[in-house]
Amino acid sequence: MARIRDMWQTWRKHRARRESLAEGLLENFPGVVMLTDAYGVILRINPGCEQHSGHPAEALLGRRITCLDVDPLHGDISHALAHCVARRQPWQGVLLCRRADGRLSHQDAVFQPLAAGTGEGLRLLVTLHDVTELRQRALHDHTLLERLQGTLSRLPGVVFQLRQDARGGLDFLYFSDGLRTLADLSSHSVMDHADALLERVHSEDREALEASLAQSAVSLEPWVLEFRIDTPGGLRWLEGRASPTRRGDGTTLWDGLLLCITSRKQEEQHTQRLVSTDMLTGVLNRRAFFDFGEAVRAHAARQGRSVPLAMLDLDHFKRINDAYGHSVGDLALQAFAMTCRDCLRPYDIFARLGGEEFVVMLVDTAPEDAWNVLDRLRAAVEAIELDVADTRLRITVSLGQAVLPPEGSLDLALSQADQALYRAKHEGRNRLAVSPGYPRVGENECQ
Ligand SMILES: Nc1nc2c(ncn2[C@@H]2O[C@H](COP(=O)(O)OP(=O)(O)OP(=O)(O)O)[C@@H](O)[C@H]2O)c(=O)[nH]1
Asked: Is pLDDT of 441 > 60?
């Protein structure tokens, strides 16, 4: 009997403690707390409940909690109650509630069934936390983000964020939608695997890309590069610009933009071709010769090599003009230029300096091998036959050969070639003469 009395007292103590805990929770909870029975009839509320719902305590106590719902009969509160009662498990979700003044609010709600003692009915502890403002802010942020994404996808380029880790590994954290149009790649494939895009960079531009990124990562100067990518639709030119920032963990982040500049590049190349081409013959003009020639000279000088070159002048060209007219002279010039171009390698420089005077620079050719190349060219010109006014017109060319040494100047070498050309003319034309001091390998065999 005493044992039963002890158990009874222990149970009452537990219950008192539980109730005082619930009491404390009710008083101090910053949101709304309600205690209901299994039917949802409100038994107790905390002070916050009056404040948040706008209903005085006497208007709530004894009523069903569903009165707070926008749809009291079939709304979410009915479902929450049914769930807790049937399963004896908590329900959590966001409810749309109506305040006493008619305003709607979003409440983050938990319906917690309380363990019932023997003979006690099920009770539910309901806590509501007003998240209306939070949801509005999230909605606002979401709308803003959608608008921003719309703007990004309509930009005439692709926005990206690139990360380089402390060991130099690259990965893309973001790519806007236009990547499909720009590079025939989906943003996701590139974000999963940066190489999907990096491998498309044209082989001749990869080194420049790596070097420019490395330099920007070290100096934290903006990255700017024009480079080509190979796509299934063909070669495309891109312009990349990005601003780097270094983060505390040693990684570098670039926020940047990729623009397609293929048509601009094509126009530039077209203009470049126009300004560097001789209109009559289609070969390089004087200006382009000095640009390219200077680049060849600088490259050979760095490697300590000499470059053979020659001046060429058609023989008695004035007679052709005088006998057949200027247009036939033009035809002869075109045939001559085409023949010379065909005799040379694509990277040799052949240009028209003016009138019937041309120049050739033999790139990557040893001076002692130049004689044979130039004499083959002379012979090819001699073999040209032009059918003009019932006659077969033939032309010949004289050549003056010189060498541009690693430390020499292009102008000086040209003037030496010009002197040699004068000698070739003087010695009878249709021949090749060399400037003094030039290696004479093969000269005797050909003359
Ligand atoms: N048809 C044509 N003739 C040109 C052009 N440019 C220069 N000429 C002519 O080329 C001729 C060059 O004559 P010259 O400098 O006396 O030389 P040449 O008659 O070839 O005599 P040599 O060089 O001594 O063998 C001139 O009659 C120029 O008018 C051109 O674009 N078209």
From this structure: no
Of 312, 356, 396, 431, the residue with max ligand 1 atoms within 8 A of its CB, to mutate for a pocket test, comes to 356
Question: How would you classify the pairing of strands 123-130 and 32-37?
Answer: antiparallel
What is the predicted ipTM?
0.93
Q: Which residues in 259-283 are b (16+ Cβ under 10 Å) and which e?
A: bbbeeebeeeeeeeeeebbbeebeb
Cβ(326) to ligand 1 under 6 A?
yes
Average pLDDT in the 58-73 region? Answer: 93
326-343 and 317-324 helices cross at what angle (nearest 10)? 140
Pocket test for ligand 1, best of 318, 336, 393 (most atoms within 8 A of CB): 318
Tokens (6 digits) for 100: 């006493």
- The reported pTM is 0.58
Residue 447 has pLDDT above 80, yes or no: no
- Lowest mean pLDDT of 13-22, 214-223, 405-414, name the range: 13-22
Q: Which amino acid is at 399?
A: L
Centre a 10 Å sphere on the Cβ of residue 379 and count the other Cβ atoms it contains: 14
* Residue 446, SS3 per DSSP: helix
**Residue 317 CA, ligand 1 centroid: distance in Å:** 5
Top pLDDT among 118 and 248 is at: 248
The Cα 313–Cα 385 span in angstroms is 18
Q: Is the pLDDT of residue 8 over 80?
A: no
Q: Render 294-346 in DSSP notation, one character per residue.
A: HHHHHHHHHTT--EEEEEEEETTHHHHHHHH-HHHHHHHHHHHHHHHHHHS-T
Q: Which domains does the chain have, with CATH numbers?
A: 2-135 (3.30.450.20), 155-266 (3.30.450.20), 277-446 (3.30.70.270)
Contact of 51 with 39, CB cutoff 8 Å: no
What is the per-residue burial (b if ≥16 Cβ within 10 Å, else e) of 320-352? Answer: bbeebeeebbebbbebbbebbbebbeeebbbbb
Comparing 246 with 437, which gets the higher pLDDT?
A: 246
Q: Which pLDDT band, with edges at 50, 70 and 90, does 439 fall under? A: low
Q: In the structure encoding, which two tokens stand for residue 105, read together?
A: 């609010």
